[in-house]
Specification:
Helix 3 packs across helix 5. Helices cover 33% and strands 19% of the residues. With 763 residues, it is an alpha/beta fold. Helix 3 links the parallel strand 4 and strand 5. The termini are far apart.
Length: 763
């Protein structure tokens, strides 16, 4: 296989001389200015005339912006692999993914032994490197949740914690010449890095053949392994190999690419003039020559997915048929980023493919692709959704997180445009300098798309209403692939459905919302001893209902554990900076039950919903049950107290959703619940899941409606409670128009009812 089709990379091999330490740093910076891709340094830790290579790598990475750095090659006997793995991942993270790990089994053994490492034979050195690669990759593999154990002869770890994960897939390049080392390259490495000065005629071809044979025996594609080559200094004068003008260099290097498969050339020179000419004059001409030759030969180029990862693909998905707009950002099982995108905040998922479209057109491509597969798909904006419907097992997830723009279109009209993938905490932070805010739940990592299409029960709810109450336009990808803009004048039926049942009619890509004039707010937290639960809950609810509209409060109840009493964690937001009025209102809460802790602050609204951008790793799937409540009666309060005391719930929460929420006509949006004052949520894990279902049978007579985002039970009964009869009938007729094939059925799917004439949809 003469040309493996890898992208051409050119770099430098610099001497890490300690006598003038800034000189080698300046040469690295000159390499970057010359347009080169890589700068490398030899590693001889026993050499007192040299800088420590790892320290130098870190310093150069911090002193440059674009160029990649690597040891050429790092001396493994003096660098423990587990520590080296963490150091490599750390440098990769700090440099933004600009590190490559070159490894060698060791040379100059007298000097290595003098530094404290035991002497190894050449064969033992190969075995030690083999074990080290397993440890390094194991430390980086944060997709695997079990501790790392490698019981080698030369290197051992026993229960090491994995991580951190690097910023990118760090390649491991091995310096090798002998058959056993070449076999190791073929089995486990990402690149072969010899020096031309140590090779005889025919060694490149023989080395490639040995590597390819070992790769195929290990079930790998030989194209997975990059072939690199350290070059001597060369000269831009004289005659001979790498002597003379740049075009002569190109003539010498081109056959090494096409005939010997070399795709990375590393120039060993400390001459800044030579480095400049190599980067500015040789590199671009060589790239053009290689591209032309590959085009003429029809050479397959680009990255090759390792066979081990191909084996993790799930049935029913045409991975090779992905549209071009999605290939670069798609994530499959085994990919480095899979752990970060597989799960939601609560649910551990294992999708077969996560698509991450970068714009609305790519969302259309993602939907068309997902529809053509034989697996289910889910749509995710932020991934917080506690119902668990933004991930799956073996299916496709369309993650619109990249559509995260926040734009103030018209400050005077308070009109804001949000991408569906923006996090509400980021929205709040972006709007705060303008004196604007949008009520948006209680957690800043929640995505715009899921919340704004379901409702939006937030800290400004009683003064502002639901988030969706202020939506003035939406952009949606429909089941047939059309990207449409809908508002009160354009497709008004669709606009009605998006606000409350958006998951039934399409994928939201952007929304325009009228924000509220909000500067600082009073944000208070009060923790109560809720041992006497029923009277406490009822008194809290009555106080909230009677409070001015500026006040919105959420109450979370946690059951007693051990010696700790049941606790009521209360958040109160007063929606302006009138601290005197806020204090009057807050003081009334202090009489509800024994206060364990209290705090009140005047803060920007953005501080109440800060986005943490935490990684979603999921967990044991909980059951969550929701319900809407007009008034917390003594009977309901007693039932909630029993639920808490019985240990059948991990948490019970009540959110205030009255006042401004109920100013809206129930027929104005698909969210039709406009008489209730509270939203109830309870969650339970493990064996308690069944218990909470039994409690909901008892609570049912006291509830009036369901909030979609808090409900894991999608039974027909719950669907009928989520949408009142007239609303559900209208949604069915609209479903027949916009989604007759029932494509969007993953989140409280409504059945199409095409037998009704569309003229009846004006109700």
């Amino acid at each position: 296989m003469p040309d493996y089709g890898h992208e051409l990379v050119l770099g430098t091999f610099l001497t890490p001389a300690a006598e003038n330490p800034q000189q080698v740093v300046a040469l690295a910076q000159a390499s970057e200015r010359a347009g080169l891709d890589l700068v490398t340094f030899q590693d001889h830790p026993y050499q007192p005339a040299f800088l420590d290579t790892w320290t130098l790598l870190s310093w150069v990475a911090a002193s440059t912006e674009r160029i990649h750095v690597a040891g050429n090659v790092l001396n493994l006997p003096l660098r423990p692999p587990a520590v080296l793995a963490r150091a490599a991942a750390s440098l990769d993270l700090l440099s933004g993914g600009r590190f490559a790990l070159g490894l060698g089994s060791g040379a100059f053994w007298d000097a290595i032994v003098a530094m404290g490492s035991p002497r190894l034979t050449p064969g033992q050195g190969v075995d030690a490197l083999d074990e080290a690669i397993d440890i390094v990759r194991g430390i980086w593999d944060t997709n695997e949740r079990t501790p790392l154990r490698v019981h080698g002869t030369h290197h051992r770890v026993d229960g090491a914690k994995r991580g951190p994960a690097p910023a990118h897939d760090i390649p491991i390049w091995v310096g090798a010449y002998k058959p056993r080392m070449l076999g190791l390259v073929g089995r486990k490495a990402d690149g072969w890095l010899p020096s031309l000065g140590y090779l005889k005629d025919g060694d490149l071809a023989a080395g490639n053949a040995r590597i390819d044979e070992a790769a195929e025996a290990a079930g790998r594609d030989p194209r997975e392994i990059r072939r690199l080559l350290n070059l001597g200094g060369g000269s831009f004068s004289g005659a001979g190999f790498l002597q003379g003008p740049p075009d002569r260099w190109v003539e010498d290097l081109l056959p090494l690419v096409l005939d010997d498969g070399i795709s990375t050339f590393i120039l060993g020179s400390d001459d800044p003039a030579a480095i400049a000419r190599f980067g500015e004059e040789v590199a671009p001409v060589l790239r053009d020559a290689v591209a032309a030759a590959r085009t003429a030969a029809g050479t397959r180029t680009g990255s090759v997915r390792p066979a081990a990862l191909l084996a993790r693909r799930r049935a029913g998905i045409d991975y090779d048929g992905l549209p071009d707009s999605l290939v670069a950002t798609a994530v499959e099982p085994g990919d480095r980023e899979y752990a970060r995108v597989r799960s939601s905040y609560v649910y551990a998922g294992s999708p077969g493919l996560v698509l991450r479209p970068q714009d609305a057109e790519a969302v259309r491509d993602a939907l068309a692709f997902a529809r053509a597969q034989e697996v289910p798909f889910a749509v995710r904006s932020g991934g917080h959704g506690i119902s668990g419907r933004s991930t799956n097992d073996g299916g496709i997830v369309i993650d619109v997180g990249a559509l995260d723009t926040v734009e103030v279109l018209d400050r005077e009209q308070r009109l804001v445009r949000l991408g569906a993938g923006a996090r509400w905490g980021d929205v709040a932070a972006a709007l705060s300098p303008h004196g604007l805010a949008i009520s948006s739940g209680d957690y800043g990592d929640v995505g715009v798309g899921g919340l704004v299409t379901a409702g939006g029960q937030g800290f400004l709810g009683r003064s502002y209403g639901l988030t969706l109450d202020h939506v003035v336009a939406a952009e949606v990808v429909l089941a047939d692939g059309r990207l449409v803009r809908t508002d009160a004048d354009h497709e008004p039926d669709l606009f009605w459905a998006v606000r409350g049942a958006g998951a039934n009619v399409g994928i939201l890509t952007a929304v325009e919302i009228e924000a509220a004039e909000v500067g600082d707010v009073v944000h208070a937290t009060i923790i109560f001893d809720a041992t006497d639960t029923a009277p406490f809950v009822q008194a809290w609810a009555e106080l909230v209902e009677s409070a001015p509209r500026e006040l919105t409060s959420f109450l979370s109840l946690v059951p007693a554990r051990g010696q700790d009493p049941a606790v009521g964690y209360t958040i109160v937001v007063w929606a302006n900076d009138d601290t005197e009025a806020a204090v009057v209102a807050l003081e009334r809460f202090l009489d509800l039950a024994p206060v364990l802790q209290q705090q009140a602050r005047l803060v920007p609204y953005a501080a109440t919903v800060a986005a943490h951008h935490g990684e979603h790793t999921g967990g044991s799937a909980p059951a969550t049950r929701g319900g809407l409540v007009e008034h917390v009666t003594p009977e309901l309060a007693a039932l909630l107290a029993g639920l808490l005391a019985g240990g059948d719930a991990d948490m019970v929460q009540l959110r205030a959703v009255g006042a401004a929420v109920n100013d809206v006509d129930p027929a104005a949006t698909a969210y039709a619940h406009r008489s209730q004052n509270f939203s109830l949520l309870a969650s339970a894990r493990g064996s308690r899941r069944a218990g909470i279902d039994a409690w909901w049978e008892r609570l049912g007579p006291h509830l009036d409606g369901v909030y979609l985002s808090f409900e894991t039970n999608q039974s027909p009964d719950r669907l009928a409670q989520a949408f009142p009869p007239a609303t559900l009938a209208r949604l069915g007729r609209l479903k027949a128009v916009y989604d007759p094939d029932h494509v969007f059925d993953g989140n409280f799917g409504v059945a199409p009812t095409p037998d009704e004439p569309r003229a009846t949809m004006a109700t």
